[in-house]
Amino acid sequence: MVNLLSRTIMMGTPLLFGALAEVIAERAGTMVTAIEGIFLIGAWAGFVGSFLSGSLTIGFLTAILSGILVAALYGWICIYLKQHQVVTGTAINILAVGLCAFLYRVIFGVPITPLTVNPLPTIPIPLLSKIPIIGEILFEQNILTYIIYLLAPLAYFLLYKTSLGLTVRSAGENPEAVDVAGINVYLVRFLTVLLAGAMGGVAGAFYSIGFLGMFATNIIGGRGWIAFAICFLGNWNPKGAVAGTLAFGFAEAIAIYMQSIGANSFFPNELFIAIPYIMTIVLTISRKSFNVPAKLGIPYVKENY
What we know:
Strand order of the largest sheet: 1-2
Structural class: mainly alpha
Low-confidence stretches: none
Mean pLDDT: 90
CATH topology: ABC transporter involved in vitamin B12 uptake, BtuC
Radius of gyration: 20 Å
Number of helices: 12
Helix content: over 70%
CATH class: Mainly Alpha
Shape: globular
CATH architecture: Orthogonal Bundle
């Protein structure tokens, strides 16, 4: 059980990166429906950067840069050109699959054996990691896990306790008021999308160089959409995102555990892989109400006064 809970925290790390990014962007009024593609681009760029340079730091930096570039394209099309966010995001997600497969083959050809890098190491925190049970669960994780679980309360504080957070939330609730106050609504929304791109790039890179140490075009497998769903299920609130992330992380940890003990000899392997996605559908159907930002997904059109 201790190992299962420890893996829950770890597997929730990339989902929380994506979910928090989505919460911030959607609070400003823009759904980042390209999140699956951003995850995948981040995974590809992170692996390529770390493999060629021999540095995981370079890998994560390239993942962040690639995520920002994809998010910039998405934000420019949806915010400034005012195109449909779902259609644009779907197109970018499809493009990302083909682009990553093509560029991977261009750079590495067709390797006989899978190319690998050493993933992020576990960093036990002195003293705290020695606490019975809790220490092993919470304080024997990798650096990204520590970072994101510190960023979550910071994101809540910034969104709900600062004037910057008020501006972000107002851009998604009443953009006209933000405009009248002399603040550029387009810029606010665009910057939150760029932030989502950076965090989504890190989330994708977590799978390739933070956990598995390799890249494949199916490495994300819909987890970007799970992060997207966590934002909805968490009612566009960082606290809800953390709770949802832990729930989905636990589901994924169980799936990995069941496969590791050979339970797939009794049940189809696909059943365990599908657990997080089944959970997404069930929780979405069971929700009774959503605190949706008033102007979510609606392009802002500046009026001439």
